[in-house]
Specification:
By secondary structure, the chain is mainly α. It is about 70% helix and about 0% strand. It has 15 helices and no strands. The chain has helices at about 1-70, 75-80, 80-100, 115-125, 125-140, 145-170, 175-195, 210-235, 240-260, 290-320, 325-350, 355-375, 380-410, 415-445, 445-490. The longest helix has about 70 residues, at about 1-70. It is elongated, with a radius of gyration of 36 Å.
Length: about 575
């Protein structure tokens, strides 16, 4: 019995020793696994650190390259570089808002009834109807605080995005819809104010069309980067996180807007001189001046064409009247062509420094008409892509040239109001063109609608060319008549300058041979100072020659901008 007990005890001890050795081996294996995991973690951390440093270096490199481009040719000294960067960030914020709301509120219902699409088009007019009669005059009233007005639009959009982020999850449409419209209105107010201050930050080596093109190019690139990024984050985390990111971005932009150069603000000239009338706040096509009116009418035709093509081609693709590709792929190709056309228009405008903006506007209208004629004659998917590309190119380039014309021709006391009305007219033309495209897509199979649009563009171009030639001829005739009248007034019957004394000469003319009478004055009166020499003026004096029929010199100075259009 005792022997059995001893054998059992020895067996138990041996088993426990084996368990201990196994546990020790397991511990050593765990330690080795831990060391391996630690080495792997350190390697992963070093790789992540190297990747992060590489990404940071790449980001800094891109930022430095962008800074060199935005601040080139003196743009950094005048404030144009800061304005370009601010507008690029503003465009990225708007793109994030669009990406966040694309699946909830403002998704284009191409698969729905045409009545719903027409309602969508009418809704897009609301911000422009508000901008034209109200926001433009308000911006003109506060010219001395333009930086703060721009900052206010950015801060307001940040707060509205924060409110929409809180309303997306419960689906509060009564909060999202008014807030989204307010964001659109504030965005247009920023664009109007930015266009109005462009001449204040323009360097001497950059033309207005080129400066506007730089702003538009960077805005398009930043929006093109922000849209897929916002769409991906919205699909991964939700639209509310995209709106929160837009909130932070807009608030930072508001701070940057306040830090723009002080010469962006212009003094409020509320005191009028004697006989001067205050220019009207509401700018119409009648009193913006002939140059601005012609350019605006050409852009109205281009924008009408763009809206027509967008919805006309969309419904042709949806109804499979434009074969060659599946509808989804064809819509993507058309959208890609439109985006490429917009970028090409901004790029060409940045190189069009030596060309007249009026000629650029008419050339873009002619290009749209010519490509539409070709697309109507040889109708197909790829000709539709070509006409979409040309329409986007003409729209972008023509709008940049129109902005330069308004900035040059209109005084800054009413420039914001003028830009507001111009934007309203262009948006109305785009909506009317889209509605007509919806209607024609019911009856025309493709070539018929494009042929009608080509005829309209050709008629608009011909009428504008005839009107421009008549205006130029009338201007030249007035100039010749003014020169003839000035020449007649300078050749009077009593002397070469029309004076009462035939022997009196212009003091700036060379003296004739022989003695000449001394000019009247203290020297000629013989007060002990000697007589003045013929043909010379006393030292320290100047003589201003004013011919008959000419106003004084201060009234002959032409202002740089025309406050009355």
């Amino acid at each position: 019995m005792a022997a059995d007990w001893e054998r059992a005890r020895r067996s138990a001890g041996e088993a426990s020793r084996r368990v201990g050795r196994a546990a020790a081996r397991a511990g050593r294996a765990g330690a080795q696994a831990g060391r391996a995991a630690a080495r792997a973690a350190r390697g992963t951390g070093r790789a992540a650190g190297r990747a992060g440093r590489g990404a940071a270096d790449a980001t800094l490199g891109v930022g430095r390259a962008a800074r060199r481009l935005t601040h080139a040719q003196g743009a950094g000294r005048t404030g144009l570089g800061q304005l370009i960067e601010l507008t690029a960030a503003h465009s990225a914020g708007d793109a994030l808002v669009t990406a966040a709301l694309a699946g909830t509120l403002f998704k284009l219902p191409v698969n729905e009834a045409r009545g719903q699409v027409a309602l969508y088009l009418l809704i897009t007019m609301i911000p422009f109807v508000v901008v034209a009669p109200f926001v433009g005059p308000v911006l003109d009233r506060f010219r001395s605080g333009r930086r703060f007005v721009m900052a206010g639009t950015l801060f307001g959009r940040g707060l509205l995005c924060f409110a929409m982020a809180a309303a997306v999850a419960p689906g509060d449409v009564f909060t999202i819809f008014p807030a989204a419209l307010a964001v659109l209105v504030l965005s247009k107010a920023y664009n109007v104010s930015r266009a109005a201050i462009m001449p204040s930050v323009l360097p001497a080596d950059i033309a207005l069309v080129t400066a506007n093109a730089r702003v538009a190019l960077f805005a398009l690139v930043s929006a093109g980067v922000a849209v897929p990024l916002g769409a991906g984050v919205s699909a991964w985390l939700g639209a509310e996180w995209v709106l929160r990111a837009a909130t932070v971005l807009f608030l930072v932009q508001g701070v940057l807007a306040v830090r723009l150069p002080r010469h962006v603000d212009s003094p409020d000239l509320d005191e009028l001189q004697e006989g001067e009338e205050r220019p009207p706040r509401w700018r119409t096509m009648i009193n913006v001046g002939p140059v601005v009116a012609e350019s605006m009418l050409a852009n109205v035709a281009i924008r009408f064409h763009s809206g027509f093509l967008l919805f006309y081609l969309l419904f042709l693709v949806q109804e499979k009247k434009l074969p060659g590709m599946p509808p989804a792929v064809a819509i993507g190709v058309l959208a890609l062509a439109a985006g490429a056309g917009g970028l090409a228009g901004a790029g060409v405008a940045s190189w069009a420094r030596s060309h007249s903006p009026q000629v650029i506007v008419l050339a873009t209208l002619a290009l749209s008409g010519a490509v539409t004629v070709v697309a109507a004659a040889v109708f197909g998917l790829w000709t539709a892509v070509a006409v979409a590309l040309a329409a986007a190119f003409s729209q972008g380039l023509g709008k940049l040239a129109l902005d330069a014309i308004v900035q040059r021709e209109i005084g800054e006391e009413i420039r914001s109001s003028t830009f507001g009305v111009v934007e309203a007219f262009l948006q109305i033309a785009w909506v009317v063109g889209g509605l007509i495209g919806l209607l024609l897509s019911l009856f025309a199979a493709g070539p018929g609608g494009l042929a009608a649009m080509a005829a309209l563009l050709a008629g608009s171009l011909g009428w504008l060319v005839v009107r421009r030639r008549a205006r130029v001829r009338a201007r030249d005739a007035r100039a010749r008549a003014a020169r003839a009248a000035a020449a007649d007034s300078s050749r009077g019957p009593e002397g070469p300058e029309g004076s009462d004394d035939p022997g009196r000469r212009d003091p700036q003319e060379a003296p004739e041979s022989g003695p000449a009478p001394a000019p009247p004055g203290p020297e000629a009166a013989g007060r002990g100072r000697g007589k003045a020499r013929p043909g010379k003026r006393p030292a320290g004096t100047t003589t201003a020659v004013v011919r008959r029929g000419e106003p004084p010199a201060e009234q002959r100075t032409k202002p740089l901008t025309n406050p009355h259009g």
